Amino acid sequence: MMSNIRNVEPKAINLTIDGKACSGVFGQTILEIARENNIYIPTMCYLTKTLPIASCRMCVVDVEGVDGMILSCQEKATDGAVIKTNSDELYKERQNIMKLYNVNHPLECGVCDKSGECDLQNKTMEFGVSGQNFTTKEPYRPVQNWGVISYDPALCIMCEKCVRVSTEITGDEALKVKFGGYSSTIINVKEDANYKTLGEAAAVCPVGALVDTSFKYTANAWELNKIPSACPHCGAGHDVNYEVRHGKVYRVTNQAEFSTMCSASRYGFDFDNKNVKKDVSSFNSAIEAFKNAGTILFSNETSNEEALIFQKLKVEKGYKLISSEARAYQKFMNAYGSVTGKLLADGTLDKLTKSRAVIVMGTRINDDAPIVKYHLNMASKWQRARVVYMHPIVDDEISNIVTQFIKYEAGSEEGVVALLADTLLKDVELPDSVRAVLNDLDIGNLSAESNVGEEELEALRKSLIKKVGYSLVVGSDLYAHPRAENIAKLLALFEKYAGFNVICVPPAGNAMGISLICELDDEVEGSTIGYNVKGDFTLSALGDGDLDMPALNQQEGTLTALTKRVVPMNVVLEYGGYVLNDIANALGLSAEYTIEYTKELPSEKGFEAVEFDALPDHFDAVGTEHRGYLLNEVEVAVDETLEEPAEIDGCDGTVVYNCNPQEHFSAFTAKSKNLEQNAYLRGSQQFATAAKLADGDKISYTIDGVKFERVFKIDTSLKGTIALNPTFDMGLSSALISSYRFNQVEIEKVGS
Ligand code: SF4
Ligand code: SF4
Ligand code: FES
After folding, report:
1. Which residues make Cβ contacts (< 8 Å) with residue 296, sequence separation at least 6?
2. Is CB count within 10 Å lower at the N or C end of the chain?
3. Which ligand is nearest to the CA of 114?
């Protein structure tokens, strides 16, 4: 039944474009091959990362032997074709298109936010359109405010890029075309939701029709200095450009033609540690504290280089290193690798988009990893992929792409994975010892304890038959599970023996980098230094510790992205205080700058000995990413010993699920004024009844020794008896909350 994502060698084709011999592969469009061969064809509606929209006709070309002009953005190239991209007729055609675009377009570039980076402005000049030759009566169409973006229909050229990203990429499906000849407009059918993902629509709008409300009328594009970097929040390390003037970030953009940002990076850029000066006495106290400490606690908001400094200090001074989420992920991946024989899981986002069937389990993916969710959405939209979402809590935000929801009991993840293995690996050749464990499973008992019916699994199995290209996406619910290591081994069977594209989504921030670079510990010893975590002595970029540190947008360094890419970050905003490297130097290490450690990142974990300044940081003309480098594959010892699933210790009583909303990942996104959001405990009416709570009650409860004081809110979009508990707003305690994500808690009412 199972078959891998096809890896067929593409068939090469040769063609001639403007007299130049070009090569490509079967299935590529004329435009794609032209761009690969540095041949310019003008476009207005083309967006590399979506399917061709084919609404503008600017990309027309002549193909020898074919009547009429051909749309190069959607026409597949054929072997031996002879193509002309330029002629008097083609120029005239394009000029006429530009004239049409300019009918009634106000051309008030002087006051338009897009001026200086507007496709219409640029191509109007390119095609010598110097005036508006004809006009029609312009209907009254006021500017609309849609929360994070605003829409001016008068400037809209109806290219549909915004609709396509909203549908094909982010999947919020908020924007639609309202057809009506010259009165056609874009409408927002989900205005109430105020999706921050709509920032993506503004990012791809070629004109000034859609703009970010927060940026509107604040600066001209050409006045801003673009500083390339990587997203420090979501774990995907995707490209960002901080656009800065006079020490202030005005907006965050990216290579929107090819890549997509999470909303946390687009709006959560104001998390720098401001107005810090060198405080010698606090610095001396820090050195003293380090000399007396036994343990360093640190959060995921730690660069690769800082993680290496901690590791070196551990080797030199014997500190215990505690970074709980990264440690859980490290143990999980070690167990996973012990089956596959490789340090990292094989899965990639690219293969995810090509999948025809995807199973997601152990993560509330839309909130945990928006970039992964976007790729899931692409698989759904482009491959019509079946998406099976397995989780204790239904998520309405992805119901538009989920074809089967399988609810399981919190705590039963090991049993669920065993049931999946039993169902989907039936016809797969497995080593005898592994097969013996699967044969011994007590299916009836696992099914009863997890509450996953055998008929649901059978429906899942049947729906996957004959599909080509499977992905399995798993996440943070599994890493801190008491049976995480056996779960990891069971999941690794899918990659190794059934060719699944398995993505183990790391926790947000730089958990993946930390897990590769540091030998992490489980137990605290002696007094503690906290780095963006509350310790006996606290170094903090949040501005409330014993010694200030720079935030990740105030330092150079690298992050390890979930794409297995090591990506550079640059200094965006000024910082005048001490950095971790100063402390390391005072303790006996020696490096003038933190980035001297970039080339020392451990090669035995796949890192390369490359100087920070030599790391590339761009996309080429066809969208291939040249940012940093991909981790090398590393082989590890194989030990496929599996255990029987343990008896399930279910979560009874009042259960909350630690999960941040989509734009929030840490105390740093919480610091962002642009992302200000109340952190309520949100539960269904059913939860409220079971927990004897009313909407608006003030409550308190404790998880991992951290006391939460919150307001309870009934959320009618939720079902079931588990409430969502955000952790991003807990400041220096945020990183301490890292146990299994479902927690049975005692809720105390402290007011209403
Ligand atoms: S959308 Fe472009 S062409 Fe139109 S007014 Fe703005 S800058 Fe000028
Ligand atoms: S709002 Fe912008 S992106 Fe959307 S159709 Fe109009 S011009 Fe194109
Ligand atoms: S780019 Fe081909 S039709 Fe617009």
Report:
1. 310, 313, 314, 319, 320, 321, 322, 528, 529, 530, 531, 535
2. C
3. 1
Please tell me the distance from the alpha carbon of residue 173 to that of residue 43, in angstroms, as a whole number: 25
Query: CA-CA distance, 450 to 529, in Å (whole number)?
Result: 41
The pTM of the whole model exceeds 0.90: yes
Token readout for 696 is 């608006």
Q: Is the CB of 58 under 6 A from ligand 3?
A: yes
- Closest ligand 1 atom number to CA of residue 107: 5
Rounded to the nearest angstrom, the distance between the alpha carbon of 101 and the centre of ligand 3 is 14
SS3 280: helix
Q: At what angle do helices 454-464 and 443-450 cross, to 10 degrees?
A: 100
Which of ligand 3's atoms lies nearest the C-alpha of 54? 3
**104 pocket-lining for ligand 1 (C-beta < 6 Å):** no
The two three-digit tokens of residue 105, written as one number: 């377009």
- State pLDDT tens for residues 73-98: 999 999 999 999 999 999 999 999 99
Residue entry with tokens 């290209």? 469
- Kindly give the number of the ligand 1 atom that is closest to the alpha carbon of 116: 7
Two tokens, residue 751? 């007011």
What would the DSSP string read from start to end of 1-34?
Answer: ---PPP-PPPPEEEEEETTEEEEEETT-BHHHHH
- For the stretch 302-323, pLDDT in tens is 999 999 999 999 999 999 999 9
pLDDT in tens, 226-254: 999 999 999 999 999 999 999 999 999 99
The verdict on the CB of residue 154 being under 6 Å from ligand 1 is no
Asked if the model's pLDDT at residue 3 lies above 80, the reply is no
73 pocket-lining for ligand 3 (C-beta < 6 Å): yes
Residue 406 scores a pLDDT above 60 = yes
**Region 245-273 average pLDDT:** 95
**Distance from Cα 631 to the centre of ligand 1, integer Å:** 43
- Which residue out of 104, 166, 186 has the highest number of ligand 2 atoms within 8 Å of its CB and is therefore the one to mutate? 186
